[in-house]
Amino acid sequence: MRTPKSAYLANAGLAVNNISAYNVDPATGALTPVTGSPYTLGRSAGPSWLAVDPGGKFAYVTGGFNSLTVYKIDLTTGVLTSVFGSPFSTGNNPFAVAVDASGRFVYAANQQDNTVSGYRVDPNTGGLTPINNSPFPTGTNPQSLTSDPTGRYLYVGNFGLSGSSVSAYLIDPLTGILIPVTGSPFTTDAGTHSVAVDPSGKFLYTANNPSNDGSAFMIDAASGALTPLPATTFPTGPLPFSVTVEPLGRFVYDTNGLNGVSAFTVDPTTGILTLVQGSPFLAGTNPTNVTVDPSGKFVYVTAQTSGNVSAYALDPITGALASILGSPFPAGRGATSVVITGTIQ
Predict the structure, then answer these.
(1) What would the pLDDT profile of 86-131 be if each residue is shown by its tens digit?
(2) Domain boundaries, position 231
């Protein structure tokens, strides 16, 4: 069983340019600032997205100036220390970053280049070495990416209004090279801004920003190809920004332009989503990223305009959200991304 340990937020507001770090109370979900937080990002101005490796040892942050900043995480205190050689070069205007399920490879989506940069991770230092043939071509204006739970496939959400899609790749297990899946890219509704895979590796969901909905797919385990579910889209509310799947695969959450987070139950056989009663649940002003902690007990939502993070207790039966004591917790202006590490108990 995994319990929450630390939380990290990217703050991209004007003249902010830092990372907020917190310790997570495993009983209540409350956040307490880590010593030294917030951490200034140097030349990687305007941090846009955060990812941590599966072991919670390293944090990866995309930002301006075409770079990827890497921190080593103190497993006891949650304190961040910059890795030697960081920041590492990316393509033009990197937005999202993801670590594969094995923790051996890191990938960054470069918005203006329409590419994905790939790196091999040094398991001792967290340092990055570019993968051969990187960067890899993808769709127009890639906004998000994620690995499936097996680490075999990488999926990239492409925002392009004239051709929104999900690009699918096989990850070479030895080299990390990306090999396009047959049939890729797979068409979505306009403006795919976020993509998430459920923990069984059977289903993929997107948040389509200007379409005000999400797309839902079945994943072919043998090939990684995507097939639209019978209920091809689901109602997210206006201008959805982020989508995530709860660690046990029971619920899906997305942020939307009503200053809220919508919750859905997942049919484990079909992958079809059903809106949870009481949804959407109020979050901060202009909510951006949503994530569920590794135990599946708590949900966290960053808010770009109000500069905070809302925290909720997750009802394990219904998926409904209840604000926890002390929420929302202060962050920096322009809070765009939140990740939670966990420890095995």
Answers:
(1) 899 999 989 999 999 999 999 999 999 999 999 999 999 999 999 9
(2) 31-286+314-326
